[in-house]
Design a protein that fits this description.
Elements (H helix, E strand, L loop, with lengths): L8 E9 L3 H5 L20 E8 L9 E4 L6 E4 L5 E2 L7 H5 L4 H14 L6 E4 L5 H12 L3 E6 L2 H9 L5 E4 L5 H8 L4 E6 L3 H9 L1 E9 L20 H4 L3 E4 L9 H13 L7 E6 L4 H10 L5 E6 L1
Parallel strand pairs: 6-7, 6-9, 7-8, 9-10, 10-11, 12-13
Antiparallel strand pairs: 1-2, 1-4, 1-13, 2-3, 3-5
Bound molecules: NADP nicotinamide-adenine-dinucleotide phosphate (NAP).
Length: 306
């Protein structure tokens, strides 16, 4: 057990957020953050309770969320740590809707993409932590929403539980044709979480003045070679469309405002935040993480320590 120094506190971890970005942190040359050193605790966002404290801002029994890594106890000086406000949501909500997943959806869609009512908005990984929220926020903005997900069962849940107007199964075998049929008037906004062939098919259907928002590319995270460029990219020229990237941390100074808004929509019954919560020990961390890549999650994937 680490010593708690002056200004520090000890957190007992209860729950972890599973994030596709972790896959990149395991590479020797990660795209967006420093690599996790072999032999060190895996970088991970967790929620827990302060059990010992020498920091008056974080007294014993405070519920906190932060980058505490995959371990049962962590010492912190409070840097980057958020105190859970139960009036907004539970600790697990702070790992999902009120954490980086929901905040990415909020800033990526509402602030960065800023769609207009009536736009056709297509979202990949539509049943995932980010995608499940993006579709609902687009619907709240008056858009026509089409979700892309793997398998007929998941697609049925995308429309029934998340309120997407339509769902397209990218594993159906005829995905490009199915997508084209679903968005006959073109895609005004494509919110991409997966990259690869799905991105290419969306580019093939981009509308005049359309916008492709690159949020993630999970289909490429295990690739050992660089992916080929999307062959439909010339549509950006012909249709006067554009592609832009979004990184949630650019909006960190506005997180609290977004949390308040997201929590209010939940209270008003306008937004649901599904979770796939798996109970287990830290030994299950790798197998639960792998569920992101086999698509076994619906909404936010969490590991709750038993
Ligand atoms: P998630 O969507 O909850 O989980 C990943 C989902 O991706 C799976 O459920 C699976 O759904 C789908 N998937 C897995 N492998 C795939 C493949 N080869 N092709 C197509 N789909 C595949 O994860 P998340 O946390 O919400 O993250 C979604 C994306 O947002 C990720 O790319 C992540 O890196 C990105 N992200 C970006 C930011 C940012 O600041 N830009 C912040 C957070 C997350 P199916 O069953 O439908 O296949």
């Amino acid at each position: 057990m680490p010593e708690v120094g002056d200004g520090e506190f000890l957190v007992q971890l209860e729950e972890f957020s599973m994030d596709p970005a972790m896959r990149g942190w395991m590479n020797e040359s990660p795209a967006a953050a420093a690599a996790v050193e072999l032999g060190s605790a895996m970088r991970a966002t967790g929620a827990g309770t302060v059990v010992e404290s020498r920091n008056s801002t974080f007294p014993v029994n405070t519920q906190v969320v932060g980058m505490f890594n995959a371990q049962t106890y962590a010492v912190s000086d409070g840097t980057g740590v958020t105190v859970v406000d139960p009036a907004l949501g539970s600790a697990s909500m702070y790992l999902g809707l009120l954490g980086l997943s929901g905040l990415t959806a909020y800033f990526g869609l509402i602030v960065h993409a800023n769609p207009r009512a009536g736009d056709t908005v297509v979202v990949s990984a539509a049943a995932g932590a980010v995608g499940s929220i993006v579709g609902q926020l687009a619907a709240l903005s008056g858009c026509h929403t089409i979700g892309i997900a793997g398998g007929s069962e998941k697609c049925a849940r995308v429309t029934a539980e998340l309120g997407y107007d339509l769902a397209v199964d990218y594993k159906s075998g005829d995905f490009a044709a199915d997508l084209a049929a679903a968005c006959a008037t073109g895609i005004d906004l494509y919110f991409d979480n997966v990259g690869g062939e799905v991105l290419n098919a969306a580019l093939g259907n981009i509308a005049v003045n359309g916008h492709v928002v690159l949020c993630g590319g999970i289909s490429q995270y295990n690739a050992t070679t660089r992916p080929p460029g999307p062959s439909n990219y010339m549509n950006l020229l012909v249709r006067r469309a554009r592609m832009s990237g979004v990184v949630v941390s650019d909006y960190s100074s506005e997180y609290q405002r977004a949390r308040v808004q997201l929590a209010q929509w939940v209270k008003q019954g306008k937004l649901v935040a599904p979770q796939t919560r798996v109970s287990g020990g830290l030994a299950e961390f790798p197998s639960v993480f792998a569920m992101l890549f086999s698509g076994e999650n619906f909404g936010k994937l969490l590991l709750a320590l038993d």
